[in-house]
Amino acid sequence: MLTRLFNEPSLLPDMEKFGGWVDDSGSECSKTKDEEQERCRLGDEDLDDVKDGSSRAQSEIAGEEDEDDDVDEDDCGDEGDGDRPKKRGPKKRKMTPARLERSKVRRQKANARERTRMHDLNSALDNLRKVVPCYSKTQKLSKIETLRLAKNYIWALSEILRNGKRPDVVSYVQTLCKGLSQPTTNLVAGCLQLNSRNFLTEQCQEGARFHLPTPSFSMHGYPYQCSRLSSTHSQSGSNAHSLRNHSFCSAYEALYAEGTSPEYNSPDYEGHHSPPVCVNGNFALRQQEPLSPEAERGYQYSMHYTSLHGSRSSTAHGLAYAPSGARSGSAHSENLPPFHDVHVHHDRAPAYEELNAFFHN
DNA sequence: TAGGCCATCTGGTCCT
DNA sequence: AGGACCAGATGGCCTA
């Protein structure tokens, strides 16, 4: 016969899904045989070391009816392992109904807290998804891919700042996709309106440039200038259509031609939008230096365009970002760093080595 | 059907 | 004692 370990559905919405079932012997039926064996493998000393107080409540609850006062209960040695040494450590106190109830409540509260904590964590992750490139409500990046992409994105921005040049799209995509799974790589490529084929084609075209400007698209009500990135081919899978076309385009020329600058400290940032970064220049490092073996290894899930590095075009444009949100008539750069205050000094040596080490880890 | 991703439970550890 | 954090386990869902 099975009995519920906990039976408050309001606090344990999915209890049936999980453990929490105990049989009359007190062992948790939901635990696999392997786990049970693992617990036994730990041995008495290990178990005694860790089983204490509330941690012990579970087995106490389960075995309440069998236990005697001041008698230790062996978690997994009850059946047929009589010559095992006696447990050491504090003797178990009898589980009174009151203690039992307290244990249950404690566990339920802990579960609720844990759920809340994980929800908060997921919420933060959702916010992160919104500020990294390739945000899609319908095709969410997985947690791990979100973190990887965010890391790459930070790296890419750092490179831009360091070099003060626009990276070419190929380099940018390579950087963003480093270490990402193939589906995510496709997603990013789709975000950039690139696919492997024309990606390679562009690579092979001598002097290929990703000139910005011309067609425009509307991003959250704001017109954006973006050249090929807003063109027709959204070919990297079905999700490309659902992607917002904002991540890689900006009023690029406007910023640099007119000297306008993005505003960063907007107080009303809601985290809804990826920074509208447009990158049509170079990552000097990526371009001038062959990838290290570590870096090469980082491409294991990536697009594997490393053989094309040498043929990369070397256009060196300026770096630009979209003008800021409502006040400036453009959009969503509230979460951008204050680039108008950034002056890239080429003789300055930022903590590049650390960045490099970080990126290639 | 296998594998990836996820939510949840659970017990341990550390800290207040 | 209790909360935060963590990692392991488990089962559900989805997709190739």
Automatic annotation (TrEMBL):
Ranges for region Disordered: 1-114
Acidic residues bias locations: 62-81
GO cellular component, one term: nucleus
Domain of life: Eukaryota
A GO term, aspect molecular function: DNA-binding transcription factor activity, RNA polymerase II-specific
Record localization: Nucleus
Signal peptide coordinates: none
BHLH domain ranges (all copies): 105-157
Basic and acidic residues: compositionally biased ranges: 30-54
Keywords from the UniProt entry: Activator, Developmental protein, Differentiation, DNA-binding, Neurogenesis, Nucleus, Transcription, Transcription regulation
Major subcellular location class: nucleus
Compositional bias (Basic residues): 85-96
GO annotation (BP), single: sensory organ development
Entry-linked PANTHER family: BASIC HELIX-LOOP-HELIX PROTEIN NEUROGENIN-RELATED, NEUROGENIC DIFFERENTIATION FACTOR 2
Subunit field text: Efficient DNA binding requires dimerization with another bHLH protein.
Protein name: Neurogenic differentiation factor
Species in which this protein is naturally found: Phoxinus phoxinus (Eurasian minnow)
